[in-house]
Amino acid sequence: MKPIVAIIGRPNVGKSTFFNRVTRTRDAIVDDLPGVTRDRNYGDVRWDGIEFTLVDTGGFIGGDEDDFAPHIRFQIHQAIEDSDVVILALDGKGGVSPFDTEIVKTLREVRKPVFYAVNKIDGIEQEKNLYEFYALGIENPYPVSAAHGYGVRDFLDDLVAEFPESVSDAPPDMTRLAVVGKPNVGKSSLINRISGEERLIVSDVPGTTRDAIDSVIEMSGKSYLFIDTAGIRRKGKVSEKLEKFSVIKALRSLDRCDVALIVVDAEQGVTEQDITVAGYAYERKCACIFLLNKWDIIEKDSRTAKKYQDRLREEAKFLNFAPIITISALTGLRVPKIFRVADEVYSQYIKRVGTGSLNKILEQAMERNEPSRHKGKRIKFYYATQVSVRPPTFVCFVNYPDAVHFSYKRYLINQIREETGLDKTPLRIIFRERSGRMKFDKKPKRKSKSKSKSKSKSKK
User: Fold this and answer.
1) pLDDT at position 2, please?
2) What average pLDDT score do residues 347-362 get?
3) Which pTM does this prediction carry?
4) Is 308 left (phi over 0), alpha (psi -120 to 50) or beta?
5) 278 compared with 99, residue with greater pLDDT
6) Domains of the chain and any CATH numbers
7) pLDDT of residue 245
8) Using an 8 Å Cβ cutoff, are 30 and 19 in contact?
9) Do 77 and 69 contact (CB within 8 A), yes or no?
């Protein structure tokens, strides 16, 4: 499970610039996924071989000068509570602000590592601006420049050294299922129905589940770890620019799970926020199952289920492999089917394909449909192999990896799905450069002694 690092601070201190610098992205707001555009407020980082999730939050505002100030403060306090490490960004040019004093006072009560990054320090000659911040009672302020990168490497070295050790939370043979979705779609009710007892608090108030709650449930002699999560709030209920980290718990759960159960309120229909949740699961490379809940109260005919499924397929094209089940957590309608489908999805999620079979599939696929040329030259595929599972990931060695069109990549993935039966799991193909064709079975020819002797005689 990746550590969660939250960046907090007052407005305009450079939090988003710092976020972009560390995550190596250009824009902290927008992220494009196939078939979906959504606000981006987090990024995955790898530093010194250690992975963590960095979360950008709204600017801290004291008092109630702004209509959204109470919401921002609430979200920041939640981010501090939910994260493993906190970064307070300070303005090295603007100096100490009363808001900074208020935030530091709050952070003194936090029992987790807190790092103080004084931004806009562009060089050693500007480090004299640090002295003012010692008045806040800060022992070790870090001089950094989010814009130019000064001091960021040293800061990240110390940051990752403070991460808590990751602990495995389930036996390797136990399938881990994360129940995710927007608030009030029936996530806790579903787990209660499955467990057969009021193991979790069930409420109609969005946000009742304040933390991830794990439940180990046995079904037909097999154990499953169910991870309940806080619902992802709709942006319109707060502000499009303020929903900066309400997904922290969901992200944490998705990092821990094998299969994400994406619960959708069938009564409300497929909403933008449902697709956003699906986007988070897709980005975390989870196997997924859509659960259309509250099916018992839907007025339906023989075509209703297909209409819902077609709408979901259209809105979430990037998860077109994910099974869809219509259920009712209240009545138990088709709830047992979740386990059967989850077993099937998980078996595909961890399946390996032999190198010989894989290369035969790709060879036949390319005979049927050759890749387009690159600057007049053929794109040659030399060989492929599976390098990992969860999800099945394949590496193809080609002469021009960057020239392979995304549509041809999708074609190859579909061919692998069709030939291997991996139709319910995400698949990944990575193209790597190879300058020459590999020869697997052919051994280098040895010169016969008779030929070598005749050549030596002719030379004489």
Assistant:
1) 81
2) 96
3) 0.68
4) alpha
5) 278
6) 4-161 (3.40.50.300), 175-349 (3.40.50.300), 355-433 (3.30.300.20)
7) 40
8) no
9) no
